């Protein structure tokens, strides 16, 4: 019985090395290529020959070929966030070069100009350039939109939990400092001018502005009383 237990432990520790290489004198722990040469040479997405190392475990686990690659989640997370469902080939185009530093990343296929351009009106330096399909990473290195300055004007909590375009009118200027913010565009109904005027009767200096749609921020920089 002790002998059987020891054998079971040995097999568990060495995995396919003993089971699949019984006729091989010695197979290194990371030398899967010995038996998987055909898989390596036939791989086309991405092409492995001449580009990928033959030490398969650098990218693959011993339990499954896919998912492959140790993605640098600290730089660009794909295991969490909006890109969690993406496959390697959804973003990386081998024809564009090597994946290091996101050089062969194609952001534009999933983020067409018709969608991104309206969201970037007034954003300095923005361009949608098919010759630079990974240019988005310059401003969005983690694949996320820039964080809202919650310490100045919270939208993650409180009454203003809404989409960017509900408050920011990009055609009027950049987001910086709330310069393109329109408070009066949404403040209808309970917050229309008649109600606002009535609520501010005893407030010194209050005056509704028809030319400055963000005038509310002067007294309510955090969107509160």
Query: Number of helical segments?
Result: 7
| Main beta-sheet strand count, sense and barrel state | none
- Principal-axes geometry comes out as elongated
Strand content: under 5%
Q: Average pLDDT across residues?
A: 79
> Order of helices and strands, N to C?
HHHHHHH
Q: In total, how many beta strands?
A: 0
Report the structural category. Answer: mainly alpha
Rg from alpha-carbon coordinates:
28 Å
Low-confidence stretches: 1-15
| First and last CA, distance | 77 Å
Give the helix proportion (percent range).
10-25%
Throw out a few tags for this protein.
225 residues; mainly alpha; 7 helices; 0% strand; disordered N terminus
Structure notes:
This protein has 225 residues and is an all-alpha fold. Among the domains are: 85-138, no CATH class; 147-225, no CATH class. It is built from seven helices and no strands. The chain has helices spanning 2-14, 16-19, 33-42, 88-91, 113-119, 164-167, 193-199. The longest helix has 13 residues, at 2-14. The radius of gyration is 28 Å and the shape is elongated. The termini are far apart.
Task: Write a concise synopsis of the structure shown.
By secondary structure, the chain is mostly helical. Among the domains are: 54 residues, no CATH class; 79 residues, no CATH class.
Record the SSE blueprint.
Elements: H1 2-14, H2 16-19, H3 33-42, H4 88-91, H5 113-119, H6 164-167, H7 193-199
